[in-house]
TrEMBL record, chain A:
UniProt-recorded name of the protein: F-box domain-containing protein
Domain (F-box): residue spans on this chain: 4-53
Chain segments annotated as coiled-coil in the UniProt record: none
GO BP annotation list: innate immune response
UniProt xrefs under PROSITE patterns: FBOX
Automatic annotation (TrEMBL), chain B:
PANTHER family to which the protein is assigned, alphabetical: SKP1 (PTHR11165)
Boundaries of every SKP1 component dimerisation domain copy: 126-157
Coiled coil region boundaries: none
The species this protein was found in: Caenorhabditis remanei (Caenorhabditis vulgaris)
Gene Ontology BP term (one): ubiquitin-dependent protein catabolic process
Domain SKP1 component POZ: 15-79
Protein name as annotated: Skp1-related protein
Length: 331, 190
């Protein structure tokens, strides 16, 4: 029998197995080895298996870093150099691509990376240190994608306009998203209207929401699908809070919804609606008022705590047995 | 060394005979054949694990006696290993190998690929996966040119005379390589 004794003569299942242990960068190199491997790779289109993907955009530099399945970090830097050239730096190698906009070179590479990505990315973080380049990236992001990206955790630096988020979030696969985190770019907290974002399937399917230094302008009712939330809001009303409270009574996976309210004009009305059987507690010198509400058909209890110091409310689902003896459960 | 005298002393009840492509007979302990899904299925189909069934020699037309010798060495070493679990990601994606395995597979590429084919044919998952991982570990982190050298592949892709970088016919396609990928080392001086 004539035995095959070279990589190019291997049957498909063997090649697939070998390629499965290689990361995306290796596959691109193997593709260049010879014509038959090039055809094989183009046909079977092996997946790239990125885990974390971070993009940080600076005035004259973009960093693309990612972890492969082997936990190998790759950091690729695209620098704008004098005379509109692009210098690409990866580990110890440096290459100058003449007469090329560094953002275009970066976008093209990102397109290739994402094109091969079929599996789930755990985290995608878009960090901004500069505006113009960032906006250029957002304008072009949609064009890069050949299919919705599957991402579990989405992190993005924003300013005061939801359109920036709308340039990215709708193009991710809503089925895979678990968490949304938004951070403010800049020193001072800014108000952020998110009326369009709460309509997205991505928002409704998400379980976790974390917002830092942005003050959200939204209806508090739109938080009812989350199990873990930490946000600040421009204003809430007693009516909205009562709707949220009712919805949370029927949310079996609720862990904690924590809301800091900048304005809550009819707060007194909401507090009174919770009833008089409250307990006060002092933790680290911070006074809290706590109510426990019975959850229908369950041993669990909805705990609502209010801290006047920062005008914040926390909703937790806890076990009935964890309610302290001197507290009473309201029905 | 005579192939008819394996290290264990099998009795006719607990062994079968396999015949390599060059006509050599090997007596194989049934315990060892459990690692080969192909042989295990054959044995169970013909009920060769029963003592009252007459056992014919099994021809393995795809495997030479040298390869069979090498495979038996693998089977003997892994005789008491737990059954191979394909889904153990932590184990199967690692690029570190037992010293024994490294020595065992310290063979030329062509022999390695022949052994890989034999492992594929006999369906010995642990050996198959291990060789694939070894091959991947030799490829990973290398440029196309280095891979050609390591695997001794002659390119049929036309190289640019000056840069040594393959000329892509379909250069209109966006997937002809990342800017960073083309950072392959400079070609040797002409």
């Amino acid at each position: 029998m004539v035995s095959s004794s070279s990589l190019v003569e291997m049957p498909d299942n063997i090649l697939n197995e070998i390629l499965a242990y290689c990361d995306f960068k290796d596959i691109l190199s193997i593709r260049k080895v010879c014509r038959s491997l090039q055809h094989f790779i183009d046909d079977v289109f092996p997946e790239s298996t990125l885990k974390d993907l971070n993009i940080s955009i600076h005035p004259k530099k973009v960093c693309l870093d990612y972890f492969s399945v082997h936990n190998t970090p790759y950091i690729i830097e695209y620098h704008k150099t004098f005379g509109n050239h692009c210098m690409v730096k990866c580990q110890t190698t440096i290459k100058v691509i003449e007469n090329s906009n560094f953002l275009d070179v970066f976008l093209r590479d990102l397109e290739i990376v994402l094109m091969h990505q079929k599996s789930l990315i755990r985290l995608k973080r878009i960090v901004r240190y500069e505006d113009n380049s960032f906006e250029y990236f957002l304008e072009n992001f949609k064009k890069l994608l050949h299919r919705p990206l599957k991402i579990e955790e989405f992190h993005m630096y924003v300013k005061d306009n939801q359109n920036e988020i709308l340039a990215v979030l709708p193009h991710l696969d809503p089925q895979s998203i678990i968490g949304i985190s938004l951070y403010q770019y800049g020193e001072d907290p800014k108000n952020l209207e998110i009326g369009e974002i709460v309509k997205l399937e991505h928002w409704k399917r998400s379980e976790q929401l974390h917002v830092d230094k942005c003050i959200l302008k939204m209806n508090v009712r739109d938080l009812a699908n989350f199990s873990l939330v930490d946000i600040s809001m421009t204003s809430v009303s007693a009516e909205e809070m009562m709707v949220l409270k009712e919805k949370l009574l029927y949310h079996p996976l609720l862990a904690e919804i924590y809301i800091r309210c900048t304005r809550f004009d009819d707060k007194q009305q909401f507090l009174e609606s919770l009833g008089i059987k409250e307990v006060s507690s002092e933790l680290y010198g911070i006074a809290r008022r706590i109510w426990h509400l019975e959850i229908p058909n369950s041993d669990d209890v909805l705990r609502i705590s209010y801290r006047s110091q920062n005008n914040s409310f926390a909703f937790n689902r806890i076990q009935g047995s964890d309610v302290s003896d001197h507290a009473e459960v309201l029905n | 060394m005579s192939c008819e005298e394996p290290t264990t002393s099998p009795t006719p009840e607990n062994n079968i005979t396999v015949v390599s492509s060059d006509g050599k007979e090997f007596l194989l302990d049934l315990k060892l054949t459990e690692q080969s899904e192909t042989l295990a299925r054959l044995i169970s189909n013909f009920e060769y694990d029963r003592t009252d069934v007459k056992k014919d020699p099994v021809p393995l037309g795809n495997i030479t006696s040298a390869q069979m010798q090498k495979i038996i060495e693998w089977l003997q070493h892994h005789r008491y290993y737990p059954k191979w679990e394909q889904n153990d990601i932590h184990y199967s994606t690692s690029f570190t190998f037992e010293t024994w395995v490294e020595e065992y597979l310290n063979i030329p590429n062509n022999e390695m690929f022949e052994l890989l084919n034999a492992a594929n044919y006999l369906n010995i998952p642990r050996l198959f996966s291990t060789i694939c991982r070894i091959m991947a570990s030799r490829i990973t982190g290398k440029s196309a040119e280095q891979i050609r050298t390591v695997l001794n592949i002659k390119t049929d892709v036309k190289n640019d005379v000056y840069t040594g970088i393959p000329i892509q016919e379909d250069s209109s396609s966006s997937e002809d390589g990342m800017s960073e990928i083309s950072l392959s080392p400079s070609p040797p001086p002409i």
